[in-house]
Amino acid sequence: MADDGDGKLRTEGSSDGGLGGAGEPPAGAAAAAAVVGGGEMLLNVGLLALALLAAYRLYLRWGTRSGPGGAARQSQAAALPRMKRRDFSLEQLREFDGARNPRILLAVNGKVFDVTKGSKFYGPEGPYGIFAGRDASRGLATFCLDKDALRDEYDDLSDLNAVQMESVREWEMQFKEKYDYVGRLLKPGEEPSEYTDEEDTKDHTKQE
Questions:
Q1: pLDDT category, 149, cuts 50, 70, 90?
Q2: Could you tell me if 169 and 71 are in contact, meaning their C-beta atoms sit under 8 angstroms apart?
Q3: Comparing C-alpha atoms, which of 162, 167, 98, 105 is closest to residue 135?
Q4: pTM to 2 decimals?
Q5: Helix/strand/coil for 35
């Protein structure tokens, strides 16, 4: 084999520069190129199929939410009065998942927030709907949006590392800035606090 000067290889002793005629690769090389080309085509088709599937899932999630049912839920949520301050056990918190109750609550680092006005995110069809009515601390700390991030028992977060706990605290501050803080998430056996109307009004005024 030799290089003919333009980057192509030719067979020594062949007058036409190769077995397949001038400038043409040998039959074996052509077959290999066809296989590679076919592989690239299959890869492109596969990627296109994945993109279409992702687009379809987004349509189902966001399209459903923005449809008549989703709009009705958002309108109903917007009409809800501000929630009075109270504390919640895990069982009580789960009632406020946006499905059984139009109001949506979630807990972060022991604090409970009313995220109803963010129902497009935390409602049943929202991307973070899995956290509605639950303690979202572990999921937010570990960036996990599936059931592995949810605990049916009280989660003291004691196994999280320093970086993850710092992430939880940062999320807590973000929720305090954007949503109403409505009370504490109670530990097992802990008694709820009794909030006066004056305390409730004062805290809500601070948030505004």
A1: confident
A2: no
A3: 105
A4: 0.62
A5: helix
